[in-house]
Design brief:
Length: 253
């Protein structure tokens, strides 16, 4: 990282510094590398430490930096790629699935999910909790809602609770012939339970991806996946599909 001094610019100093730092992260630093301390950075760029902190906080919000107590400020790993508009249609838990099933319980889904599943008022469904990790960091949490009619052969005796129960539900779901699926993406705020699982503060920006899986002429399952907004970016393909791709990140030479 060079010692370029900031010149007078019409934009806020911290934002200009954020741009300079972002360019340096692309060209001079590798993933996981620790940045110089605040005093050294402030001296190099000729800014007050308060201005530097604002720039670092902005880059952390954008997912470019990670601040770890006892370690310092490090360069964050590349944003995780998740194809939202992909033509590849498979059941959750199928070969190549990057999600980890952690728990399963009978729950009453939200009114919106119950409507998609055509579930009756107060009707319980199997809810499989799944998580996704990238570079050792939690990046997404998923609640997969499956009505009993989609897994009629499921035995409550063999796998009553926990991850084994979750895997059993997914295995039974995959017995159905998948007719298709659709997805919707919206910006949201992390709820308390999502925030804990994603290591974010409640209210932090998240992307909510809702997927409906169709089989036998009906909605067989509904997935509501919550992604940390600082771990992905949305792009629009040539055919209008919405996809989340890796953010390009050059390594230090």
């Amino acid at each position: 990282m060079g010692t370029t001094q900031l010149e007078t610019v019409p934009e806020p100093k911290y934002w200009h510094l954020r741009t300079v730092l972002s360019e340096a992260l692309d060209s001079e630093f590798s993933v996981g590398e620790i940045l110089p301390n605040e005093r050294e950075l402030a001296a190099r760029f000729g800014v007050a430490r308060a201005t530097l902190r604002q720039a670092l906080e902005q880059l952390e919000l954008e997912g470019r930096l990670q601040r770890r107590r006892g370690v310092g400020t490090t360069v964050a790993p590349p944003r995780m790629g998740v194809a939202v508009g992909s033509e590849r249609q498979v059941w959750p838990g199928a070969s190549g699935d990057d999600w980890q099933a952690t728990d399963c319980a009978l729950t009453v889904p939200s009114p919106a999910v119950a409507l998609m599943l055509e579930a009756g008022e107060g009707e319980q469904v199997h809810t499989v909790r799944r998580s996704r990790v990238s570079h050792g960091q939690p990046v997404a949490a998923d609640l997969l809602h499956i009505p009993a009619s989609s897994v009629p052969e499921l035995s409550a005796i063999d796998s009553p609770t926990g991850s084994s129960r979750a895997r059993a539900v997914l295995r039974e779901l995959q017995r159905l012939d998948l007719d298709g699926q659709d997805r919707a993406v919206e910006l949201g705020s992390a709820r308390a339970d999502d925030a804990r699982e994603l290591d974010r503060l409640p209210g932090a920006p998240v992307l909510v991806v809702t997927t409906r899986f169709f089989a036998q002429g009906r909605t067989a399952a509904v997935s509501v996946a919550t992604y940390r907004a600082d771990t992905c970016r949305l792009t629009f393909g040539a055919e209008g599909a919405v996809e989340i791709h890796d953010a390009p990140r050059r390594q230090a030479s």
